Amino acid sequence: LTDQSYCHRLQHDMYFLTSNSRLNEQVVDKIILQLNRVYPQILSNAEAEKFRNPKASLHTRLSDLIKHLQKKGDRHCQEFYRALQINAEELYNDLPSRKILSKLISQNSGGPEAWLSLNP
């Protein structure tokens, strides 16, 4: 997992993020708005409105957002993780991919360089 892209990590974390209402409407909106306002090249106004549409279920919108970002590429997925960390740090720290990375780092004791290379 350490050598995988952010898109692969997001694929690994998708079920965790979309199950059991881990992310509520307000947090998902904050993530979408951050991606749209801070990084409009990552999420356009039209795309942001689509993923904020209350007619679709939160699960569907979040799943669609994640799939959309994965299609756009690694930088888009990385910015999703950054927005998640800012808006839901506790959940971000509980991500399966984060737990695997933390475990690998503690086992390998790769020093600060290894840690920095694995964290956005």
TrEMBL record:
Keyword check for Cell wall biogenesis/degradation: no
SUPFAM superfamilies associated with the record: DEATH domain
GO cellular component terms, A-Z: endoplasmic reticulum membrane; mitochondrial membrane
Keyword annotations of the record: Disulfide bond, Endoplasmic reticulum, Membrane, Mitochondrion, Transmembrane, Transmembrane helix
Alphabetical list of CDD domains matching this protein: CARD_BinCARD_like
Lineage top rank: taxon: Eukaryota
Topology class, membrane: Single-pass membrane protein
Gene3D superfamilies linked: Death Domain, Fas
Domain CARD span(s) in chain numbering: 41-99
Localization (cell): Endoplasmic reticulum membrane; Mitochondrion membrane
UniProt GO BP: regulation of apoptotic process
PANTHER family tied to this protein: CASPASE RECRUITMENT DOMAIN-CONTAINING PROTEIN 19
Subunit structure as annotated in this protein's UniProt entry: Associates with BCL10 by CARD-CARD interaction.
Protein name per its UniProtKB record: Caspase recruitment domain-containing protein 19
Organism listed in the record: Buteo japonicus
